[in-house]
């Protein structure tokens, strides 16, 4: 059993991961969470901070602890900023598990304390700091934490450039903190999405920071694009884990009668796909444009059974830095439920991920449609 008892100065909590994983070595917190919460306890002078924002809290370690610390105060507010819908599910689950009230709505105005977990990409951190800056005042305590391997000179430069004077702590258990103070005189330029060509009909892919392969087309995506099935009639299509929307937009370009639903757990990915789609069909404004929906969700949760004819997917195989196949498996079993009888799932992945075998298990059939030295495209029929 993975360890679930999380003990910090704010109390002892029971924390589990979401999505659940079979890997028993994975806990719902890391040494950076412990270091951040120890620091919060040290700097607290007049009782718990009244208004706290946690940023990129993966499973709720930070939110649960600060919520518990302030629970006696009816004015206490804890809000949460993250690009990840799945993280918001994890946090809700762990608050509930520990008998704590849900977080306050996304009200990040005027916080006393901001606790930031350093995300995997510097681009996402830059985007988040730029958005957060407007809510800060010079007295707001801003502390970021991360594992030392994720904190570089460029990370500290970013805090200096966007927030103001910043310094780091000593490392402890391979984690480190960054302390930052707002400089009201700074006027940093907000980062913009990157744009590059899909290679079809002049379509430009829009990529907000932090989304998958934000600087160039991924080789796996390219192989699936070259091997997408031709559709006819008005099929219901899902681009599952859509990222910038390359796959779903390519299907809509080939068949403007297709109804495409783009799904991603990343808010910025869903926004990227929507902007890609709108750009691709901007000339068709209104009646002629294909129909599309953009959905932030966990795999296919919330979508009706027997409602799709085709699902295309380049599944994630990491959560943070950890390699996992639990999400891909949830996507495959979800696809089996959501596809109409005879509906098809097209998946691309690195050869070592063994999607052929996994689809055999989920669907009872699977077929290799294309492969190269790195990737394989597999089809399964519901
Ligand atoms: C390998 S990327 C593929 C992106 C895009 N389809 C492409 O080919 O460029 C996997 C995508 O799945 C999304 N994802 C991860 N977990 C998810 C989940 N539980 N539900 C929905 N999407 C998820 C990621 O945010 C990411 O955009």
Q: What share of residues are in beta strands?
A: 25-35%
* CATH homologous superfamily caption of the largest domain: Vaccinia Virus protein VP39
CATH class of the largest domain: Alpha Beta
Instruction: Kindly name the structural category.
Output: alpha/beta
Please provide a written account of the structure.
The protein has 382 residues and is an alpha/beta fold. The chain folds into two domains: 5-180, Rossmann fold (3-Layer(aba) Sandwich); 194-381, Rossmann fold, CATH 3.40.50. It contains ten helices and 19 strands. The strands form five sheets. A seven-stranded mixed beta sheet has the order 13-12-11-14-17-19-18, sandwiched between helices. A six-stranded mixed beta sheet has the order 4-3-5-6-8-7, sandwiched between helices. Strands 1-2 form a two-stranded antiparallel ribbon. Strand 7 (166-168) and strand 8 form a beta hairpin. The longest helix is centred in the C-terminal third of the chain and has 14 residues, at 267-280. The chain starts with a strand and ends with a strand. Bound molecules: S-adenosylmethionine.
């Amino acid at each position: 059993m993975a360890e679930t008892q999380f003990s910090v100065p704010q109390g002892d909590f029971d924390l589990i991961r979401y999505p659940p994983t079979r890997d028993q070595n994975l806990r719902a917190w890391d040494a950076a969470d412990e270091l951040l919460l120890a620091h919060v306890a040290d700097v607290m002078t007049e009782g718990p901070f009244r208004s706290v924002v946690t940023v990129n809290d993966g499973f709720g370690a930070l939110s649960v602890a600060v919520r518990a610390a302030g629970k006696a105060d009816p004015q206490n507010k804890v809000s949460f900023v993250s690009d990840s819908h799945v993280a918001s599910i994890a946090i809700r689950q762990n608050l509930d598990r520990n008998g704590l009230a849900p977080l306050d709505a996304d009200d990040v105005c005027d916080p006393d304390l901001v606790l930031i977990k350093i995300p995997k990409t510097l681009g996402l951190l830059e985007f988040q700091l730029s958005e957060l800056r407007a809510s800060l005042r010079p007295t707001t305590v801003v502390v970021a934490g991360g594992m030392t391997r994720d904190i570089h000179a460029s990370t500290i430069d970013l805090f200096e450039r966007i927030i103001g004077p910043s310094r780091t702590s000593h490392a402890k258990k391979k984690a480190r903190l960054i302390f930052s103070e707002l400089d009201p005189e700074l006027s940093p330029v907000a980062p913009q999405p990157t744009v590059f060509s899909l290679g079809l009909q002049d379509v430009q892919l829009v990529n907000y920071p932090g989304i998958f392969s934000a600087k160039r087309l991924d080789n796996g995506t390219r192989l699936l694009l070259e091997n997408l099935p031709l559709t006819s009639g008005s099929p219901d299509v899902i681009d599952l884990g859509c990222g910038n929307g390359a796959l779903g937009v390519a299907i809509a370009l080939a068949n403007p009668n297709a109804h495409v639903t783009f799904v991603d757990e990343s808010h910025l990915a869903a926004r990227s796909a929507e902007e890609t789609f709108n750009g691709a069909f901007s000339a068709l404004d209104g009646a002629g444009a294909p129909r599309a929906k953009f959905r932030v969700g966990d795999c296919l949760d919330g979508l009706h059974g027997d409602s799709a004819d085709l699902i295309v997917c380049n599944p994630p195989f990491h959560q943070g830095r950890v390699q996992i196949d639990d999400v891909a498996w949830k996507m495959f079993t979800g696809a089996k439920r959501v596809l109409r009888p005879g509906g098809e799932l097209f998946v691309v992945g690195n050869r070592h991920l063994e999607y052929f075998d996994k689809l055999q298990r989920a669907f009872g059939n699977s077929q290799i449609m294309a492969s190269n030295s790195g990737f394989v495209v597999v089809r399964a029929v519901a």
